[in-house]
Structures are given as C-alpha cells and as structure tokens.
Amino acid sequence: MIKIKNLSKKYGNLNVLKNINIQINKGDIIAIIGPSGSGKSTFLRCINKLEIATSGEIYIKNQNILDPTVNIDLVRQKVSMVFQHFNLFNNKNILENLCLAPIKTKILTKDEAIKKARILLKKIGLNDKENAMPHQLSGGQKQRIAIARSLMMNPDVILFDEPTSALDPEMIGEVLNIMKEVAKEGLTMLVVTHEMGFAKNVANRILFMEQGSIVVDENPYNTFENPANERLKEFLNKVLNH
C-alpha cells in the first residue's frame, strides 16, 4: 500500500526525520508511539504531503507522491487524515461538513453523499446531530464527526494524528471505540497515539520513534510484553507508570 524509502525532513539544521525506510501493507493497523519531538506527527504529515519531505521517496500505490507530476489532490482522496483539533468547518452544519468533500470532488452526487452521511452518523451514534453546528458538540462528538468525514471519501488509508490528545479523559473512550470499529473494516490505519491500550489491543504493528528514526517496528506482544530495545523499555516504563 505504502512504501517509503530514505525519507528525511529538515527544518534548517534540525533533522526531524532521518532516513526512514518502511513498507506498510494493506490492512495494517499501525500505532506510532514515542516521546514528544521524536518526529511522529511530521512522519504522518509527510505521507500525504502536508509536510514536504527534504529527500526520499514515498510510494502510495506505486506512485511517488514527491514526484511533482503526481496530482496530490487525487492521492489525498484515498489517504484521509484525522487531526488532533477536528478541523470542522464552523460555518456549516454537521451534514454539510460530511458532504462537502465527496460532492466537491465528484466522488458522490449530493443525494448519495447525504444518504452515506446519514448511515455514518447512525454508525457513530450521532444521527440526531445532522443539523447541529460544530460549536454545539462536545470534543468527543466533533472527533467522531471528523472520523466519519474521512470515511465519506471511501479512503484506502486513514492517518490519525493524536486523535484523542485534545479530548477530556471521559471523551477519549468514545473516540477510541469508533476507531476500533473502523479498524475491523480492513482499512489501513496509521495512528500517532499516546493511548497504549489502543496500541496494544488494536494495532498489528507498533512503530517506536525516537529522534527522527523508527527504532522499533514490532508486533504488539513483543513491544509490550518482551521489549528488546532499552529506549523502548524506558519509554514504556515512563508512560505506563505515569
């Protein structure tokens, strides 16, 4: 699904990503963990070119998205992103927020988009909110809408950038439950997260990043029950005993 070769990202003299090589397979649920400032979000944002890599290659379905001839807007239709702060359009109601992109990109007609949006709203338990405005919703509800909005585009891959970190503790569970349901549908998911329970129980691969490099790429059992890497052990001791 995604192949990354020698990916680097610099801001001036600061090396944020250092020579990353990884292959992501169809259906992978990958949790990306690591200390703050390790390059996790930058790595994710490079995958759909919200950040422009300094060097390297990123192949999505055999297209190198860093090739200037590749239409990144078409690529992004199949690589959705869910942000930390929801990024809903505050001047549009929930139904309009969901329908805007698929109608504008001509993926769905208006009638098809409304029908699909209502199905997704029911699925995430917010079918009574289609006429509500974003400011009328809680943070957890907004993030569930943001996930539904990404599903409206029928993506192959969803990138989640710390989707629960801006939420109050009691709202985190409702968002993680929706993400678990999405994971069951066979979509490829990359999730930058501090939620170790989600990483352990839902992901099939854990990437541990530190100082701009992927230090560990393991299954959850080896990561959490039998970590071989000393820095990973230190990190897990810190976050799990916090």
Automatic annotation (TrEMBL):
Pfam families: ABC_tran
PROSITE patterns: ABC_TRANSPORTER_1, ABC_TRANSPORTER_2
Matches recorded under SUPFAM superfamilies: P-loop containing nucleoside triphosphate hydrolases (SSF52540)
Signal sequence annotation: none
GO MF assignments: ABC-type amino acid transporter activity; ATP binding; ATP hydrolysis activity
Task performed by this protein: Most probably involved, with PEB1, in a binding-protein-dependent transport system for an amino acid. Probably responsible for energy coupling to the transport system.
UniProt record similarity statement: Belongs to the ABC transporter superfamily.
Protein name, as recorded: Probable ABC transporter ATP-binding protein PEB1C
Organism (species): Campylobacter novaezeelandiae
